[in-house]
Amino acid sequence: MKKILILFTIIGAVFMSSCNEETFLLEEPKDDIFAENLFLNYDGFVNGLNALYALVREDRETQSNVVRASLWQMGTDNAFVNNGASQSDPFNDYNDLNSENNLVSANFNWLYRIINSSNLIINRAENTPVDWMGGSDAGNLTNQNKVIAQARVMRAWAYRHLRYGWGAVPLSLEEIDGTTYRNDWERNSIEEINAQMEIDLIFATKNLEMKEQTGLVNAAVAGTMLAELYLDMGENGKAETEALKVINSPEYELMTSRFGVNASKPGTVFTDLFMNPMPNDGNKEVLWVLNNAYADVVGNSYVTIKNIWISYYSKDSKLKKYNLDVLYTYNGGKGSGRASVTDSAFGWYEATDDRYSEYAVKKEFIFPTDDTATAFEVIGSTNMDYDNPDDLEDNFLWPYVTKWTYNDPFVLDNASLSGQYNDQMYMRLAETYLIAAEALMKNSKPDIAANYLNDLRRRSNASEIEADDVTLELILEERSRELVTEEYRKHTLVRTGTFYDRTVLYNPRLDATKVFDYNEYFPIPQGIIDANTGAEMEQNLGYD
């Protein structure tokens, strides 16, 4: 579980600092000599990739009092800002979102750090003499292509965020050094960004195995991303093909029976997925795992996603009177409730759906009745009662999904921390099923689409649907039922052209006076515009 993390080296510091936060594409990096000494053999490239994975894992680390991923989740149809902060409050009122927003600019720059680091690995792997340590010409080529393929997936992953977050953005494919320094970047079209993502992901599907070492990207990850990309490009036949390649591969399957550490205890197979995120836990559905480790292991990540989604129940006037360390231990850990699932999204579940059961959505708070913690009493309940949207600010008892709860079996005190150190699923086969269903619907195959949707619904005890029920609206709601707080919801809504209508209709904090069509994209950070002195960097519509 910890192998990748133990390999993490000082190169991580180089990647994380090689680009100034305010001049992502403009600064001449100072790491050239270090790179010359590192990228001499296969092991050096593995260490470079480990640093790249560490950058990606920041997705679930703290940024501007939320996590980076929150930028693409808050202010949509299924998530609102609850316990807000200055950088996240604008997602309850987009009138306040501007080009100086720190969360927006920090994520923009972070994504280009990932792109620049990917370019460094790709360019060095393609263009410099390297001992690939493969034992033969064929083995050398395999090792070389696996390194390049992983870096290409990371580059495509970053451009995916940029495309759905900002639309047209600069396309950078070369390592930035003294000869490639520029201050005249222009924004490339979405079509150009998508075309490069397609090239990168096709290369990855051809040069990676369907299942690689746990924690590494693989052909299944690349194929799922490629299928979604083809939906965005209107290539629905290709989207269907790529999604079904992953679904039909023998390496993965939907989990439909109880498994893992709590299989003998009350619960559901759906919640078992999150308690047992690793393949060696028996999880055959997970495509990509974010490996993690405790604080004393080099390369660990202090992930704070639970703190964002778990409500701030310890602030409740009744619950705060209990011993908080004990309260946290038996209720999923400490939360600050920065973001919450909308009541609309909770309303999309049927009563029998395991994804809305007491195991999947927190509905009651418990406390042990004795020191042995073998019996518990219910000391409070969650609720979604409110008279007006203002009541949803600091709503301490709002229900929350239990996907990110953290009851550390080894260090109980960790439940009181804002962060967590557990391994987490990052991508799973259920999303590939949903992409396949959308492609099949668009390819006039609603009966087959219904079959894939029913596979998900059946395993959660939701009622089955018919071919005539398959619409984009149903698929969007099924995505939320299955993936809420996992998927980058704004990406999905932007891709399907439904962001504005669904947000106004279903988000209680946002009406037509607080969100607008142009808010589907974020503003280009002002620091980027100002630093690009050699050419005009156009601002997105509405933010001038």
Automatic annotation (TrEMBL):
Keywords: Cell outer membrane, Membrane, Signal. Its main location: membrane. Signal peptide: none annotated. This is RagB/SusD family nutrient uptake outer membrane protein. SUPFAM superfamilies: TPR-like. Belongs to the SusD family. Residues 344-543 form the RagB/SusD domain. InterPro entries: SusD_RagB_dom, TPR-like_helical_dom_sf. It comes from the Bacteria. It is found in: Cell outer membrane.
